[in-house]
Amino acid sequence: MRFPRAVPVGIFVLIMAITILSVFVIQRGEGQRQASQLQSQGLAISSALERRANASAAYLRAGAALLATLDEIDLTLFRRFVSELRLDADYRGAEGIGWAMVVRPGEEASFAALAQPVDAGQPLLHPALDGSRPFAVPVTLLQPDTERNRRALGFDMYSEPQRRAAMDKAAANARPTATGKVVLVQEGNDGEAPGFLIYMPVYEAAPGGRRLRGFIYSPFNAEDFLASALELEDAGQYGVRLFDGSGDAENLLAANFADGGVARASVSETVQIANAPFMVQVSLAEDEGLSGLSMATLIFGLLVASLLMFVVRILTHQAREDEASLEWFEEQASIRNSLTRELNHRVKNTLANVLSIIALTRRRAQGLEDFADGLDGRVRALSATHDLLTKSDWGTTPLRAVINAELIPYANDTDHELDIRGPDIQLAPNDALSLGLAVHELATNAAKYGALSQSGGKVTVRWELVNETLVRVQWKETGGPAVPQDRHRGFGTDLIERIVAHELKNPVKLEFAPEGVTCELFISVREPSEFAMRAARAAGRRRTPADMER
């Protein structure tokens, strides 16, 4: 209260400082968590690449062992060998499995007899032996037999320095050996997609030792190889690049995303693929925004700080609010007193009606049982109408509902007909009680002596607006017994013409014509105002001191 402006600002600054510190800590922890996940993902992807390469190398080892035992290798045998060697539906990311025999000078005819047929116009062995190299290692057989793989048939792989280096290393170590970054012959003249090959040497017995017979190998498109490895370990939101040796741009073999993105963090792992070093780089794309938790913390802190700024203002206005509340409670107490007086008035009116009914019933009763039956029915009629008024919270009550409540005992009887029609009109509570008594007496008389007492009888109830403030209700019986004209005046007649007419403050026309009873009542159409308490509740608000002044 002493510092109404400085305190809210100070609270805001303090809360925001705590919030910003919390966001910083959360972001730092999030970065450490992501770095740990990135490292784990890098190891998993590296392991998947090695598993793919080792599987292919194992195939080549098995193939080399088998081919070394064969005296002759032909296309049919090689196709059968590859179909049995391939254990699943793909080639572990490879283009296939091939056989490249060593062709020394003078052995071109042997190669031609064994080589898989090539497309027309393509040399059987290219480039030809010209004495610049001791022998050639052309692609002799290559499965599966596809148009892409046919491009490589007859190509002397030993004529290309990088392939030659890998073959010499494989022959020296007798182990599967991968080349570096090369473009496969399968890519054609315009192809630029990089790849690599894995060679496994095959030897044959020779005088004084063994002699190199050729190489069983697998060519790999780098992107296909990376995609097959990532089938084992889903990269998810991480970017993966595969390099030949170092991570320089010119050594890039394949990537699982378009290049050019900014990496927020990355890890590099060295991968040994067939005794050759490769590098896999796993990165996480740059995200300049805050994490979800940090954003939620910042928003929550801002909301708390803003709310606390208004605490002092709320407290200074609390006293005035309390004073206004006391005035409102006083008004509501006055309203409740008015409601109590109104309820007492209605109870007195109801009791007066009951006393009048008792007096009239006793005067015309033939005995105690007749008195009890008459009194019971009329009190029940009052009770039914009271139920309607209670459901409407003692507000307006539909005229149709009052009539239906009194005629419901006769509604399902098929011996007679009820025809009830009229517009939707609302009645005040006292008028609804009086109408209920009148309809009860008319229905009771009709059930005993009139249209409801025999089959084929009909009771028609119609109502319509005479003007904006008055409604006319007509009761008419037809199809019943003839009404005697020398009948004595009964209780129902007195009740309707005296009590009901007095309560409705309008005359009642009751006629006992020979063809049936008719009755015409006039009821004022009122829209009684609700008590202030009920009106405020319906409006969904409480009255303020400004409302009281109005």
Helices and strands in order, then pairings?
Layout: H1 6-67, H2 75-85, E1 97-101, H3 108-114, E2 141-143, H4 147-150, H5 161-173, E3 177-178, E4 182-183, E5 194-206, E6 209-221, H6 222-230, E7 238-244, E8 252-255, E9 263-273, E10 276-285, H7 292-309, H8 311-364, H9 368-391, E11 397-398, H10 399-407, E12 417-421, E13 426-427, H11 429-448, E14 458-467, E15 470-478, H12 491-504, E16 508-513, E17 516-524, H13 532-539, H14 545-549
Parallel strand pairs: 12-14
Antiparallel strand pairs: 1-2, 1-6, 3-5, 4-5, 5-6, 7-8, 7-10, 9-10, 11-13, 14-15, 15-17, 16-17
Task: Walk me through the structure.
The structure is a single chain. With 550 residues, the protein is of the alpha+beta class. The chain has two domains: 1-309, CHASE domain (Beta-Lactamase, 2-Layer Sandwich); 349-532, Heat Shock Protein 90. It contains 14 helices and 17 strands. The protein has helices spanning 6-67, 75-85, 108-114, 147-150, 161-173, 222-230, 292-309, 311-364, 368-391, 399-407, 429-448, 491-504, 532-539, 545-549, and strands spanning 97-101, 141-143, 177-178, 182-183, 194-206, 209-221, 238-244, 252-255, 263-273, 276-285, 397-398, 417-421, 426-427, 458-467, 470-478, 508-513, 516-524. A hairpin with a 7-residue loop joins strand 7 and strand 8 (252-255). The radius of gyration is 53 Å and the shape is elongated. It starts with 5 loop residues before the first helix and ends with a helix. Residues 529-550 have low confidence and may be disordered.
